[in-house]
Design goal:
The protein has helices spanning about 1-25, 40-60, 70-95, 125-140, 145-170, 175-180. It is mainly α and about 190 residues long. The radius of gyration is 17 Å and the shape is globular.
Length: about 190
């Protein structure tokens, strides 16, 4: 059962993440913008995050890497967090629109997205990714995974702070008003 659920969840996640990229590539839309923090740190955060996700797959399908005995409670907590995380991630992409999903900050003229899931969180996409990572840390109980999750969350928070500075400069009062109404995460 866990293999089926994990397969479905990661399938949905990959579809939500890859389809906009494929469309961008076909329409020759730039998918990499200006990165607001050190590039190596930025990509280190991405690698840490997705390595933590990969440990879920490794644990479920190949090799038990958790240092503690398997516990169904931890598995189901992970599955619930993954489900909510993937839902938030997917809704965020839908609210952003195909051409707004990019790595880094857009340099061309853009609009501040405040509709859809962005009415409840300024960073629902990253909140979703955070939930998946926390689920991974609960299910794959290993110091390496815990370190990956802590590194990923710390770096992504720094990315958000840089993005907020960018948004303040780009959108001014519109951003200030939105920031004052909607929480960074929840």
């Amino acid at each position: 059962m866990e293999k089926i659920i994990v397969s479905i969840f990661f399938g949905i996640f990959l579809i939500a993440a890859l389809i906009p990229r494929i469309i961008q590539k076909r329409k020759k839309v730039e998918s990499v913008g200006c990165i607001g923090i050190n590039k190596k740190v930025f990509f280190g955060g991405k690698i840490s995050l997705f390595s933590s996700f990969a440990l879920i797959i490794i644990q479920v399908f190949f090799l038990k890497v958790s240092l503690f005995p398997q516990n169904d409670v931890f598995l189901w907590i992970c599955m619930v967090l993954m489900g909510i995380g993937i839902l938030l991630f997917t809704l965020a992409i839908k609210s952003l629109g195909t051409f707004s999903l990019r790595v880094g900050l857009a340099q061309e003229k853009t609009a501040l997205r405040t509709k859809g899931i962005y009415r409840f969180s300024r960073n629902p996409m990253l909140l979703g990714l955070y939930l998946i990572a926390i689920g991974s840390a609960i299910y794959v109980q290993n110091p390496v995974n815990w370190a990956l999750v802590i590194i990923a969350l710390t770096i992504h928070h720094k990315i958000i702070l840089a993005e907020e500075k960018f948004l303040q400069e780009r959108f001014g009062e519109e951003w200030t008003e939105y920031r004052n109404k909607i929480h960074r995460y929840v």
